[in-house]
Structure formats: C-alpha cells, structure tokens
Amino acid sequence: MLLREGFLETRIVGNRELASGYLGLFVPPLRITQSLDEACLGSEIVFVVDEDSMTREYVGLAEHLRVDRESQRIFLLDNHNYALAYWLESAIDGIIPTTSNCLVHVDQHSDLRPNDAILPSVADLDHTSTFEFAHARCQVGNYIVPAIRSWFIGEMTRIESEFVLREHDENFSEYCDGAILNIDLDFFAPEMWNENTDHMIGILRAGMSTARVVTIATSPYFLDQTLALSLVRRLFA
Fold first, then answer.
1. Is 43 inside any structural domain?
2. Which residue from 19, 136, 140, 164 has the fewest beta carbons nearer than 10 Å?
3. How many domains does the chain have?
4. Region of 60 on the Ramachandran plot (φ > 0 left; ψ -120 to 50 alpha; else beta)
5. Which of 5-14, 31-40, 45-54 bottoms out in mean pLDDT, i.e. has the lowest?
6. Residue 58 lies in a domain
7. Average pLDDT value for residue range 172-180
C-alpha cells in the first residue's frame, strides 16, 4: 500500500542545502510491504554534495519501505534524516511513547551535528508535518538533536564500532527491548575493517526482534548501495 508519493524537492532545504546549486533531489515514495526483500535501487539522485570543487551525485532507493509486525514497525530508507519522520509517525500511531524513548544508534557517525530547529510536541504533529520537519529542517548528520532537545528521545546509546557492538553480545535483545533501534548500514562500510560481519548481523538481528521501531538507512553518500541491499537481505535472511 502506497503511503506517500515520491517527489522532486526543488526548495533549498534539508539535504539539498549541502549542494544548493543543484536543480533538485528526489525523495522516494513510502510503501507498506510484507518483506524488505522487495527493496531495490532507484534511478533518481537522492543526495548531492559539493566536495573538492565538484558536485557529487548519489542514487538511492526506488522506495522507502515499511513492514508492520505485531507491535513493531520496521522501515528501510536511504538518507538517514528520514528516520526521524518514521519514529514520530510511529509515536502518533501508538507504537512507541510520545516522549522519553530509548534510542539505540548503530552507526559509524553520531548524527549529532548542530541543528537549531525546534521539534514540536508529538501531540501537535501529524504524518505530513513530521515528514516535512525531518525532510526540510534536518540533514543526514543532524536529525537526532531536535528529538533529544524536545525529550522525544530521553536516552541514547551510541554503538560506533564492531568492538562496542560485541560488548553487548549477550544482552543486545534485552538492551533493545521496547526501544528504537536505528541502524545505519555504513556501519559495515569497508573502511570500518570489521572482522566478523556475520556475527555482527546476528547481534543486530537479536536486537531487531525486541525493538518496537527499527529504522535501517542505506546511506548513499557513505556506502555503495548494492552492498547496502545485500546487507539488508542478510539481516532478514
């Protein structure tokens, strides 16, 4: 079932501020599906950045996907700032509390760069306004700060390396119980020099089994998207 149409963003807002001279960025549609096996690469540019006197373009997913399970939602997205929209939508729909959520952030980056945008109370939001906030007022590196400032996130645990993840090997499912589990697949990027990807995926799957909301970002800027989709399929094998 289609929940949101895709569109071309031509305003200089959100991620487009990173390359304001570019004509526009595509934002994929959101669809409910039975399995993330349906995930596939798109053909549209979803992220652009001015870097080293060049404009670099990145293709993302054809669609953002949502899988509904009993008392749980799982989202697959490309640019990580959209995770905030999906957390807020889940709170509006009663899947998680409207305040003081626990966030388990599995990512080689903190995503805590400064952001002065003020996130309204969940009671004052709907699905349209939550998406607009995450899309237009946030970027891939700063979307968590407004959620913490507004007390939507009351506790955040950062897992930035294989070593830290393996410290939770025995209790990760308990650690994620009832929480938001936020996974950036750049955690598996080649420069991370992970020793045992299969073991790491096993730990994450344990956490995914108990989290109330799971967001998985393919992060086109940081990770080859073919590799990202192969990791998604391993997470759900």
1. no
2. 164
3. 1
4. beta
5. 45-54
6. no
7. 96
Residues 121-125: contacts with CB under 8 Å, at least 24 apart: 121/150, 122/88, 122/91, 122/92, 122/98, 122/152, 123/98, 125/88, 125/92
Distance of CA 77 to the CA centre of its chain: 6
Cα dihedral 76, 148, 58, 223 sign: negative
pLDDT digits (tens, 9 = 90+) for 152-171: 999 999 999 999 999 998 89
> Which CATH number do you get for residue 117?
3.40.800.10
Tokens of 128: 């349209």
CA distance 114 to 116: 7
- Helix, strand and coil percent figures for the chain, each rounded to 5: 35, 30, 40
Q: Does any domain span residue 38?
A: no
Give, for 131, the enclosing helix (H) or strand (E): helix 127-136
Is position 221 within any domain? yes
- Kind of pairing between the strands at 7-9 and 25-27: antiparallel
Angle 184-187-192 from CA coordinates, rounded to 5°: 160
pTM above 0.85, yes or no: yes
> Which 3 state secondary structure label does DSSP give 76?
strand
The residue segments making up the domain with residue 142 are: 64-235
DSSP label of 121: P
* Residue 171 token pair: 């209790």
